[in-house]
Every structure is written in C-alpha cells, then in structure tokens.
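## Example pair
The file below holds two records. Each record gives the amino-acid sequence first, followed by its structure token line.
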Amino acid sequence: MTSSVLRGLNLVTSLAASLVLSLMCLALLPPAFALLVALVAAIALVALVLGVGESPVVQVLSRSRPVTDAQQQVLRPVAARLAEEGITISRWYVRRETGKDAPPAARIGREALVVTPWLVETRHQEQLSVDEAAALVAFAIGAAGRTRRRGEVAVLVATTPWRMVRAVTHRIGAALAWLPFVRLSWSLRWVLAVVCLVQSVVEGRAPAGVTAGVLIALTYLLPATTRAVSRRTERSADQFVVGVGLGPALAGLIRRHRLPVTEARLQGLEHGAQHPSSRPALRLVTA
C-alpha cells in the first residue's frame, strides 16, 4: 500500500471509532441536550477546518504555549538556518509538559511548530548545534508532509474520543501486565468479539454486538496501520532532511545519543543524495 492509502485507512478507522464512541455517549444524554451538543461540536469542527480558533486548540491538544522572547532568541539561529533552505516558521510553541513519547519537534496543522523544552534548553546550553536542532525541526516538517494541512486540527479534535480510550486502555494494560494470563487474554480478544456478536444477535440486540465487535476489530486494525504509517513517515522525513542538507547533522545526533536505529538508516542520512526537486519552499504563516 502507498503512504496515502495507509494514512487514509488509519484516518477513516480512527474517525469511525470516535464516531461510535461519541454516539454511545450522546445516547446517554437527554435527546434535546444531545442534539445541542452534536450541533455545537459540528460547528466547532467546521470552524477549525476553516482555520478559526486553531491556535488555542493546538495549545490545548499539545499542552503547549507560545515561546517567550528569551526562547525565541534561542531559536532564532535555528529559524535562520531553516530559512536558508526555504523553510520559514512564523509561529513557535513550546510544550508545558513533555511525555516520554513526545518528539523533540512536531508540526501540527497549518502553522504550528511545537518543540519540547529539551530542544530549547539544550540549544541554549549549546549541547545541540544549530544544524542538529534544525535537522530535528526539518524531520518534523518532513514527517508531517510537505503541504499545509487545512483540516488536521479538526481531525485531531474529532478523533479525541478514540485516542482517549486508547490511552486509558494502554495504562490499564501496563498496570495489569504482571498478572498471569493477562497477555494471553488480550491476544484472544477476538474470541470475545465473536461471543458478543453471536449472543447479541441471538438475544435480538444485534446493534450492540456489532458495535462491540467493531471496536475490538479496530484494536487489531489501527495498531497495524499506525505502525505501517510510522515506518513510511520515517522514510519520507529522512528523505526530506537529506534533501535540505541536514542528513549528516541528524545522523550525528542519533549516533551521539546512541538511539536504537539501523545502520542502514544512518548511512542513508549521512550519504543520501540530495534532490533539489525535493526542496520546496515551505512557509508556516500566522493567520
């Protein structure tokens, strides 16, 4: 499958799961109030697609805030280095809290570039060179795609129910992983899906059984598509970093921190051929 097909499949399944979860929650509310909530949510999503209110939503989703003047001063050489390659960033954010899985830099929506306090602090202390910091930002831009994504923030908001459920189940799974047969039970969850479906059909409650079966099926499909998208995204981001001449800097950073990557990837970053056609002028502008 191509990257576009995998991304599309991952998006559709995430939206479908979030829609099912949202409808289940709305069904618990009084009909008039549920309709009001649905209308407000729909209007908010349309506004986000049009770019209205995107900045505060990005700050909430990424738990970030705009960079201070001092942080902007630290990041100015990085921005200048990126500008040499046609990449202009007009709006920077820094995370308030950094989780263990948070990337050093991430592009969200049309204009937001979110960095971690680690990137700012290590650059300020000169433990991170300008080229290395620029390579991390370029990797984030390459991973996000070279086009400005108009409705990405709206999609992130729309898929929040599914992402919340995944986060909760992962925490519960990690807490209970030490118990006997927990891993075995999780690996055999498809049996539960079949039992729920058959029992619900027999009892005349087919919609409930189908809903449970779909949710369990998504626990197989979404992780698989996510892993496939992550692998292809990494290759695309590496190609972009090499294309803007920052491959050796990123490879050196990876080697210095002894990150678990393949030697083939490091060689590709260090010796990959640059392609001028893959170096478009990217501009993240404020509204």
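Second record, same layout:
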Amino acid sequence: MKHYVSAEVKCPFYTHEDACELHCMGFSDSVRVHVCFGSKKRKEEHKDKYCHDIKRYAECPLYKSAAEGE
C-alpha cells in the first residue's frame, strides 16, 4: 500500500498515512503506532478533528499516549 505524508497535519507525532490508516510515533523511541480506521472517511474525520488543528491535536488519544511516554 502506498504511504504518503500530509502537509496539513500539525501534530508532531504524525509520521505518515495511507488510505485508511495513520502512522504516528509511539510512547517510546522504538515504538510506532499504526491505527486502522474502518474507512478513509473515518480517518479523515479523525484528522480533521485532531491532526489538522494546532489547538486540538493535544486532545487526541494517540497524542496523549505518545506524550505521556516522553
């Protein structure tokens, strides 16, 4: 599957994505989080709610998990 990086994402833990998945840094340097959404629409909804918003990405459950591990 082809991976790509969105220039619109503000979250510092985002690394890349594909059609229905987000890939983010995890709770330690050796861990990466791979999140599978049920559809591209659900992934985009998550990105719109958290990843694209400089004021809201810290509310994302994935961000919280990674930030707590730092």
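Notes on the second record: The radius of gyration is 11 Å. The first strand starts at residue 14 and ends at 18.
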